[in-house]
Amino acid sequence: MMTIQQASTREANLILRIQSVLEAHAQLSPYHLGLDVTMEGPRVVLRGVLPSAALKQALVPAIRQAGVLGQVCNCVEVA
């Protein structure tokens, strides 16, 4: 069984991996600092604002590149 500390370390590492992928992404890189990546239970939750729907749609495939196979909740707004 995983301890709470191990789980939180695993979540923190996953968030760092996602942030690294977003920072390196050609289209999303300029906006990565304005995106909030958190874990809510087993789900990855994305919040923030992007200037286009195409960029919002690019988020989940980019996150999959970080090895995230679980549920992703894309709560990013387009403005």
Attribute tags:
Histidine-containing Protein, Chain: A, two-stranded parallel ribbon, globular, 43% helix, 3-stranded mixed β-sheet, BON domain protein, 79 residues, alpha/beta
Please provide a written account of the structure:
It comes from Stieleria varia. This is BON domain protein. With 79 residues, this protein is α/β, with parallel strands linked by helices. It contains 2 helices and 5 strands, in the order αβββαββ. The chain has a 3-stranded mixed sheet, with helices on one face. A two-stranded parallel ribbon has the order 3-5. It is globular and about 40 Å long. The chain starts with a helix and ends with a strand.
Binned, the helix content reads 40-55%
Beta-strand percentage?
Answer: 15-25%
Count of discrete domains:
1
Q: Would you state the CATH class?
A: Alpha Beta
Structural class: alpha/beta
The tally of strands reads 5
Major sheet summary line? 3 strands, mixed
- Strand adjacency order, main sheet: 1-2-4
Radius of gyration: 13 Å
- The SSE order reads HEEEHEE
CATH topology: Histidine-containing Protein, Chain: A
Shape: globular
**CATH architectural grouping:** 2-Layer Sandwich
Mean pLDDT: 92
N-end to C-end Cα span: 43 Å
Query: Unreliable runs, pLDDT <50, ≥5 residues?
Result: none
Note the total helix count.
2
Protein name: BON domain protein
Organism: Stieleria varia
